Structure formats: C-alpha cells, structure tokens
Amino acid sequence: MPMAANNPAALKLRLAVYGVAAEAEHRPGETLEMILPDDSWARARVDPKSPIRLAESPGLNAINDGETESVVRLVPAPGFATKRNARGIPLGEIVAMRGTYATIALGGGCGLSVVGRTCALCRGRELTEKAGELWPVDEVVEAVRDAFDDGDAEFVHFVLGYFPGDDAGVATLRPYLEAIHRHFDTIVAVTMHPPADLRAIDLTYAAGVDVLSYNLEAADDPAMRRYFPGRARDVFLGRARYLAALAHAARILPSGAVWSELLLDLAPRPAVEAAIAELVGLNVMPLLGVSASLETPALEMTDAAASAAFLFDAVTRSGMSLNWLRDISTSLTALEARHFVAGGSQLPMLLHQLSRNRLGALTTRSLARLRRRLRVKRVRASFDSSSL
What we know:
Elements: H1 8-18, E1 31-36, E2 40-45, E3 53-57, E4 60-64, E5 69-74, H2 91-94, E6 96-98, E7 101-106, H3 137-149, E8 155-160, H4 170-183, E9 188-191, H5 199-206, E10 211-213, H6 221-227, H7 229-232, H8 239-252, E11 258-263, H9 269-281, E12 285-289, H10 301-318, H11 347-356, H12 358-385
Parallel strand pairs: 7-8, 8-9, 9-10, 10-11, 11-12
Antiparallel strand pairs: 1-2, 1-5, 3-4, 4-5, 6-7
C-alpha cells in the first residue's frame, strides 16, 4: 500500500510497522530518528526488506515507497552517547534520546514503543528475570546535562519497570526527580506501572512529575491476557488498576498531562476505539503506537487510519490540552492524528505552535510549578505521615 500523499502521520505509522531500508552505513536493526514533514518526529528500525526506502544525499534525505516521496531530516546520533563517565559507562546507556526527550529507563524500564521491551512482570516471568539497572542519581544528572548541553534534549522522561510495593516505585523515583528539578528547568515526564495505593499518585505529582503515563498498551482484557499475562493478573495489576490510577491522576495533573498508550496491532479496531473513548472520558490523553517486537497480526493501515481519526475527533471534542505532548517519535499523538481527518481543525495546531515558542514553553513550565506548589500544600501531610 503506498503512503497517503502529504500525510506525515500515515508515514510515521508505516515506518513504525515496516521499518526502512537504508544505505549500507546503517546496520540492520539499528534505529533511526527522523523529522517528517510538518515537524512530526518518527522512529524506524533499519530493515533491508522494508518496502520503504531512505535515500540520503548532502542536504536532502527522502523516504520513498515506489510511488510517493517525502523529504525528511535525519537526526544524527547524539554525540554525548559515546562519552564515558567515571565508571567507564557510555552515557548513551544511561540516557537514550526519543524525539527531544532524554529518556532514562530505571529498573529496566517497561514499554514496547518507548524502550522496545516489557519488564519481567508483564511477560509473567517476574521471578526469573533480572530487573535492570538503577543508575546512581549523580550519573543520571551527568548524562542528562550532556544531552542538554549538546542541544539534543528539551525534556526528561523516566520509564520505570515493575517495582513491588504499593507505590510502584515512587519512593525510588523521588531522588531522581529532586535532582533533575534542582539542576534543570525542564518538563519531566514519567511512565510507570500504576500504584496500588492511589495516594502515591498525589505524591508523584508533588515530587515533581509534570506529565504522567500509565500505559495500557493492550486495548482490552483479551489482548492484555494474551500479550501481558503477568500484568493481567489481578493480584499484581490488571486493567482495572490502570484505569483507576489514570482517572485519579487526571483529577490531579493539568488537562492533557496524563496519557496512556494503546498499541494498534494488539487488538482489533473496535477494541482500540472503545479504549480511546474510555480514556478520553476519564480526561486521559490516548497515544497510538505499534508493538513492532511481538508476533502480532499484521496491522491494517486502513484500520489504523480510522482509529487515528477517531482519536483526533474524541480529543478535540473533549477540550483537553494538546500542549503537553510533542516531539514524540515513538507513538502518534492526537495532534498528528488530525492528518487523517478531512479538513482537520487548525485551531489545535495554532495553539500547539504557540506553546512551542520560547515564551510559550516558559509560561507552561511556570504554570506547572505554580500549580504543583498549590497541590503540594494539600498533600504535605501525606509526605510527612505516609510510609510510601
């Protein structure tokens, strides 16, 4: 199927599904970050068998599927990634760039589109697999500083694996949040599993999280049981726990600052659209991605396009802010989904462009800090008395 002309969102989805055939200097399995027309960020694995080809030339890179061609900008590999810290660890092992997000996976991280893997809990092997690194706080700050100094990063994104206990890792995360806010003036996003104790969500926000994600990934119960058997167990998490946590978080954080990703290739279109409607009804922003690393049914691009159009319409009607999520290469945002809607409203784009300029970004961060200070006053007693 050729790409829809002048539709960067369709191209982004196809790159996620099929990867891209690139020149010899790019190794098979390598991941390329690129900026598509309309400044949409995308990621694509290098696959010589892909029907989509990347042609590189000085000053011009083009994506071609045989019928349609789009000019893209390849994002160079971050220079800081090969630098080594005092322990000899490459900084790129601590911080990975996803769009303009300096992404730190703690405890191995968990997320098929973000870190390319699920944690041991999700796959039902929590007792047999090593969790993953908990990088020292000072090493994280060092790596993030290099990412900012090199001009690669604008935001910070922590991705947590499974942490046992009622707080799902909030206590472990707090020193990192405090250090990042002490050293950088930036928005901090966190993706983690939902806590059993909803009070931990209040503490998460008060500790410095600006954008929070509990990713369902699987749109319905059958998909969760099939692809994430450990996560589906009621004794651990279960879909209801995700929805309860998302609903609580959406009542605390600003409009549009709570999101949950749905993977288009894990469930049929009706289930995906039902989940979109359910999330939007909770004032949670859905994102759409693809697994790309599980054996799943082939994604029908017509269904994906219809679900994306459904997403844009649902979010537009809800009135949620679109300004918190941008420059995301790993999944499709509601703003990008407008390309699947004939005559999609330009107002969301105008508001989003305003938030991107220096004054708009500064205002967003300032309002976030003020809003959090007011909220912290209400949860200070929880910090002092809770054992979370």
